[in-house]
Design brief:
binds D-xylitol-5-phosphate, 34% helix, binds zinc ion, eight-stranded parallel beta sheet, alpha/beta, globular
C-alpha cells in the first residue's frame, strides 16, 4: 500500500518540519490539495507552496487539482516538480486531450471522480491513465466522513482495470483512517490519501506505518 499524506492537514507555520517528518516516515508520496473556491467551496494553497515543498524534498508530489479548467495549469504543476497530476473528470471538457498534455509535460496522469460520478465514465480512457483517484468524500474539506459506497465503486473500478488491461493504480481520498483503510485495501485500493488521520495523530510516523501495513 502506498500512503500519500495530504499536507492540507499539516501545520502551515511549520510546513518544513512536517515535510521532514514525512521523509522520516514510511509515506512514499506527498498529496497536495489545490482548491480554487469555484470547483469546490474552499480555497487551500497554490503553486508557491507546492514549489517550496518540491524544492525541499525529493519525495514524489501527487498534486490534486480541485479547480475548474485544470488544463490551464499543466505547465505550472510540472514546474513545481510534480510526479503526478490529478484532474477531475467533472472539470475537463476534453479529458483525453488533457491527459495527453499531462503526459507530454512529463508527468503521470490521474483522473479523479467525485462520489456521484460513475466509474463507467472512464471506460474509454482507462488504458491511458496512470491512476484513478476515487473521492470518498465530496471534495473541499479535510476531516469528513468516508462515503461507504466508495468500496463498491472501488471493486467496479478494479474490474474495469483488469478487463481492459490498464495499468492504472487506484487511489482513495477522504475519510481514510484505521477503520476505513483496511476496507479500502480489501476493495482493491493501491494508494491511500490521509490528512487528518496522519497530521491529527499524536505520533504521525506511527500512524503512517500503521496505515501502510494495514493488510
Ligand atoms: C478533500 C481532499 C483530501 C483531504 C483528505 O477535498 O482532496 O485530500 O485533504 O483529508 P482527510 O484524510 O482528513 O479526509
Ligand atoms: Zn486530495
Amino acid at each position: 500500500m502506498i500512503i500519500s499524506p495530504s499536507i492540507l492537514a499539516a501545520d502551515f507555520c511549520n510546513l518544513g518540519r512536517d515535510i521532514r517528518m514525512l521523509e522520516q516516515s514510511e509515506a512514499q508520496w506527498i498529496h497536495c490539495d489545490v482548491m480554487d473556491g469555484v470547483f469546490v467551496p474552499n480555497i487551500s494553497f497554490g503553486f508557491p507552496v507546492i514549489e517550496a515543498v518540491g524544492r525541499m524534498t525529493d519525495m514524489p508530489l501527487d498534486v490534486h487539482l480541485m479547480t475548474i479548467d485544470p488544463a490551464r495549469y499543466i505547465s505550472r504543476v510540472r514546474d513545481c516538480g510534480a510526479m503526478m497530476m490529478n484532474v477531475h473528470q467533472e472539470a475537463c471538457t476534453h479529458l483525453h486531450r488533457t491527459v495527453e498534455a499531462i503526459h507530454q509535460a512529463g508527468m503521470k496522469a490521474a483522473v479523479t471522480l467525485n462520489p456521484s460520478t460513475p466509474v463507467s465514465t472512464l471506460e474509454d480512457i482507462i488504458t491511458d491513465l496512470d491512476m484513478v483517484l476515487l473521492m470518498s468524500v465530496d471534495p473541499g474539506f479535510g476531516g469528513q466522513k468516508f462515503i461507504a459506497n466508495t468500496l463498491e465503486k472501488t471493486r467496479r473500478l478494479r474490474e474495469l482495470i483488469e478487463r481492459s488491461g490498464s495499468n492504472a493504480l487506484i487511489e482513495i481520498d477522504g475519510g481514510i483512517n484505521f477503520a476505513t483503510a483496511p476496507e479500502a485495501a480489501a476493495a482493491g485500493a493501491d494508494v491511500l490519501v490521509a490528512g487528518s488521520a496522519v497530521f491529527g495523530a499524536d505520533d504521525p510516523i506511527a500512524a503512517i506505518s500503521r496505515l501502510r501495513n494495514i493488510n
